[in-house]
TrEMBL record:
Motif residue range(s): 'HIGH' region: 47-55
GO terms, molecular function: lysine-tRNA ligase activity
Organism of provenance: Qipengyuania mesophila
Presence of the UniProt keyword Cytoplasm in the record: yes
Source lineage: Bacteria, Pseudomonadati, Pseudomonadota, Alphaproteobacteria, Sphingomonadales
Classification via HAMAP family: Lys_tRNA_synth_class1
Protein known as: Lysine--tRNA ligase
E.C. no: 6.1.1.6
């Protein structure tokens, strides 16, 4: 596949990253800005807490659009036609002490101060924000994202935002005209686009501010001790209200694309008006739906009903997380441990299909986008396309659940090598062996409940056992599956359909309502071991 073929197909693809990139292409038909500079993508992060799965999904989705845009203009990641900025809003004042932080008294004593001017409660960095920013960079690096880190504090303190701040001061009244009608009456009395830093306490103040001299950057306000202060708003002596700050950032950096969650819909509207007042242009962007828990309720940090990156990677693979996040961002997704096994197996199904697909179908395959997200392509080909696992993740989980307390990485590895041959366990499969043991231990074994078979089910199980008694240990999974089918179809056992037979097998042998292809399971677990399971079930009949 040539790059020109890819470019042509990308421009007509209906996959959502290409649809998003289409809007950027309309903005810049030649693929670059009028001044020749790269198209700028941005993601934002508030370092009052640690990076989480929401941070991951926003950077991933933005990267997917970025790479889609590059494909549409015939560029490679190394060509420098685009940039991605991960922006940390670390000049923000700390409003409350996070629940999951040690040494809370350090933060409690510094409420209201910019995050970069608060001591690090972990004792490892020069400030609380520096600690969390380091965690953010480690987090993004772990997943191989290509980005540039930008700190709000560094830009404010160094004067990098000074010219944009002067423009905010010049347009102060016009910004007030946009914002005041959106606020409650009580809030209007204290609202100001500019938040000065108190010269006495160092806190970010929410007080009315008078612009004395926009060109010089001088403002006047009442400090916390009641004194009237006249000082510069430049060089780190102030920051901006959130919606104004977002607009100023778009204006100062020249941001062309930024997505955000549904909860920021109003912010997008107001910030879009403000950036136009400043003389800039609102970036293109996507408003995505938020994650829900298993009950369909909005995920909340304070409730603790979410799922962390660490939890997902304990029970599933990195690729499966990206795969689960990929589909339609405008639809809400339930995010809980129970979705992981299906996501792992679905990822591998799509990865196996990729090599066989025509180009237009490849561009709709999540695996194509995930491989491209972090430069994982040689030319236009995805690495690992056509690869498959010798067993499904679901089958691994079933094997581990049957082993129960005896399940370990070593035991699963032994069974697998007996089934697929020694030396054939790939690094990807090695990861899943570990996660299968963890998932089974924490979520499957505690729920297992093997019921006694009914009379007709017991007769069918005896028939299966009789077949296995005469079968060679190396009988293929397909032959075993065929016999399982044949037994379930016999009228004398009284199953209305094969589904009832399979459900009986799962509930009596495995202790769950769902399970694997039994032929594959028997081949993996071994005929002798499978007969022991049947004997245990029949003993209850």
């Amino acid at each position: 596949m040539s790059m020109s073929d890819l470019t042509t197909a990308a421009r007509v693809s209906k996959a959502w990253p290409f649809q998003e990139a289409q809007r950027l292409l309309k903005r810049y038909p030649d693929g670059v800005k009028p001044d020749g500079s790269p198209v700028l993508f941005e993601t934002g992060y508030g370092p009052s807490g640690l990076p989480h799965i929401g941070t991951f999904q926003e950077v991933l989705r933005t990267t997917l659009v970025r790479r889609a845009f590059e494909a549409m203009i015939g560029a490679k990641p190394e060509d420098g036609k685009t940039r991605l900025v991960a922006f940390s809003d670390d000049m923000d004042g700390l409003r409350k002490v996070p629940d999951n932080i040690a040494n809370k008294e350090v933060l409690a004593a510094n409420l209201g101060k910019p995050l970069t001017r608060i001591p690090d409660p972990f004792g490892t960095h020069e400030s609380f924000a520096h600690h969390n920013n380091a965690r953010l960079r480690d987090f993004l690096d772990r997943f191989g994202f290509e980005y540039e880190f930008v700190s709000a504090s560094e830009r404010y303190n160094s004067g990098g935002f000074d010219e944009a701040l002067r423009q905010v001061l010049r347009k102060n009244q016009a910004i007030l005209d946009i914002m005041l009608p959106t606020l409650r009456e009580e809030r209007r009395k204290t609202y100001s686009p500019i938040l000065p830093i108190s010269p006495t306490t160092g806190a970010v103040l929410q007080v009315p501010v008078e612009v004395v001299d926009a060109e010089a950057g001088v403002v006047r306000f009442t400090d916390e001790d009641g004194s009237t202060v006249e000082q510069s708003a430049l060089g780190g002596m102030s920051k901006l209200q959130w919606k104004v700050d977002w607009a100023m950032r778009w204006y100062a950096l020249g941001v062309d694309y930024e997505m955000c969650g549904k909860d920021l819909t109003d912010s997008v509207t107001q910030s879009g008006k403000i950036v136009q007042v400043l003389g800039g242009r609102k970036p293109e962007g996507l408003i995505y739906e938020l994650f829900l828990d298993e009950k369909g309720e909005k995920i909340s940090k304070s409730k603790g009903n979410g799922l962390t990156i660490e939890e997902w990677l304990t029970y599933g693979s990195e690729e499966s997380l990206g795969f689960y996040i990929f589909p339609n961002p405008k639809s809400a997704k339930q995010l809980h441990v129970g979705v992981i096994p299906r996501a792992v197996d679905d990822y591998w199904q799509f990865r196996e299909r990729l090599a066989e697909q025509e180009l237009d179908k490849q561009l709709g395959n999540p695996v194509w986008h995930l491989a491209r997200a972090n430069g994982g392509f040689e030319g236009s080909e995805a690495p690992g396309a056509g690869d498959s696992l010798p067993v499904t993740y679901g089958l691994l989980l079933n094997l581990a659940s049957v082993l129960g307390a005896e399940a370990s990485e070593a035991s699963l590895r032994d069974y697998l090598e007996s089934y697929i041959g020694a030396g054939r366990i790939t690094p990807e499969l090695e990861v899943l062996i570990g996660t299968a043991v963890a998932y089974t231990r924490d979520y499957i074994v505690p729920t297992l409940d093997k019921r006694a078979p009914t009379a007709n089910e017991a007769e069918a199980l005896r028939a299966l056992d009789a077949y296995l008694a005469d079968a060679a240990e190396d009988t293929s999974a397909e032959d075993l599956q065929t016999e399982v089918y044949e037994i379930g179809k016999r009228e004398e056992y009284g199953f209305e359909n094969l589904r009832d037979w399979f459900k009986a097998l799962y509930q009596t042998l495995l202790g769950s309502d769902q399970g694997p292809r039994m032929g594959s399971f028997i081949a993996l677990y071994g005929i002798a071991n499978s007969r022991k399971l049947i004997a245990e079930a029949l003993a209850k009949a």
